[in-house]
């Protein structure tokens, strides 16, 4: 009974940014649970490499190159997916990122912000969530049942220094998640749900230099994070997967419009 409640077996689940660290971790876990996974990313070479690796877990994986900022590109891929699988059950919007020009270094102030890079980061994180939600969400609502999961961040609700562009765009993802959840429930019924997860601090390719010195020691920024995380460590990518599966399954059937922290207690801790 419990296994059926949490089951994602045979669900057709799309993951944008699926060739990235977090996206591929989610894909691997969901494949191991019997899902059919479609990873979407910008570069075909990255997709091919990720699909080859993921096929070691399950053959039920495919990959398509598309641009999350180009509606026509997304619509073309949607038709390919529907031709192959005949439905889309869920979408995970894992595409996103940051740029140096939208980040304030320790020797800079807000007046050094490169507004062009700020706009690019905002577009990638917000528009790169909105457009796939519209294109693939239409197929999900046609089913009358399904899920969208967005990726927020601890930077959306707390003033985390330096990452101004990333923070602002992820805060926008939060309210879009709540808005779309409301829109879908009111107009398409109680089985079409939208939620988000808000990862705490995980060491990845984009933030490694900010957190880890060349000799492997923590930077002062990393040490501050650890001091303010009750679990006293960084997260591992696979620690997102249990919550992802729960949100995709019938076990969370009355959950929509939420942004769930996965942060080792960071958002709960006052620092005292």
Give me the secondary-structure topology.
Layout (H helix, E strand, L loop, with lengths): L1 H4 L6 E5 L4 H12 L3 E6 L2 H11 L6 E5 L5 H15 L4 E4 L21 H29 L2 E6 L12 H25 L3 E8 L8 H4 L8 H8 L13 H8 L10 E4 L10
Parallel strand pairs: 1-2, 1-4, 2-3, 4-5, 5-6, 6-7
Helix pairs in contact: 4-5, 5-6
Q: Enumerate the spans where pLDDT stays under 50 for 5 or more consecutive residues.
A: none
* CATH architecture term: 3-Layer(aba) Sandwich
Q: Tally the beta strands.
A: 7
Estimate the helix proportion, in percent. Answer: 40-55%
The spatial strand order of the largest sheet comes to 3-2-1-4-5-6-7
Put simply, the count of helices is 9
Q: What is the fold-level CATH name, i.e. the topology?
A: Rossmann fold
The shape, in one word, is globular
- Domain count: 1
Going by CATH, the homologous superfamily would be NAD(P)-binding Rossmann-like Domain
Strand content: 5-15%
CATH class: Alpha Beta
Tell me the major beta sheet: 7 strands, parallel
């Amino acid at each position: 009974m419990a296994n059926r409640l949490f089951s994602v077996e045979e669900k057709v689940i799309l993951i944008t940014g699926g060739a990235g660290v977090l996206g591929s971790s989610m894909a691997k876990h969901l494949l191991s649970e019997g899902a059919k996974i479609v990873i979407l990313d910008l570069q075909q070479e990255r997709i091919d490499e990720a699909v080859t690796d993921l096929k070691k877990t399950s053959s039920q994986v495919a990959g398509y190159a598309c641009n999350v900022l180009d509606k026509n590109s997304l619509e073309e891929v949607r038709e390919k997916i529907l031709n192959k699988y005949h439905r889309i059950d869920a979408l995970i919007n894992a595409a996103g990122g940051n740029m140096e020009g939208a980040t304030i270094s320790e020797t800079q102030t807000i007046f050094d912000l490169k507004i062009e890079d700020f706009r690019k980061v905002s577009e990638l994180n917000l528009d790169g969530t909105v457009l796939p939600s519209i294109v693939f969400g239409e197929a999900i609502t046609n089913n009358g049942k399904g899920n969208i999961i967005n990726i927020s961040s601890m930077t959306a609700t707390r003033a985390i220094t330096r990452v101004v562009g990333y923070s602002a765009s992820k805060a926008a993802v939060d309210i879009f998640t709540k808005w779309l959840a409301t829109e879908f429930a009111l107009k398409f019924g109680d089985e079409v749900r939208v939620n988000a997860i808000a990862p705490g601090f995980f060491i990845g390719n984009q933030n490694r230099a900010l957190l880890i010195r060349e000799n492997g020691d923590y930077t002062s920024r990393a040490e501050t994070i650890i001091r303010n995380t009750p679990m006293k460590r960084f997260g591992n990518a696979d620690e997102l997967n249990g919550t992802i599966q729960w949100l995709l399954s019938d076990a969370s059937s009355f959950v929509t419009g939420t942004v769930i922290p996965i942060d080792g207690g960071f958002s709960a801790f006052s620092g005292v």
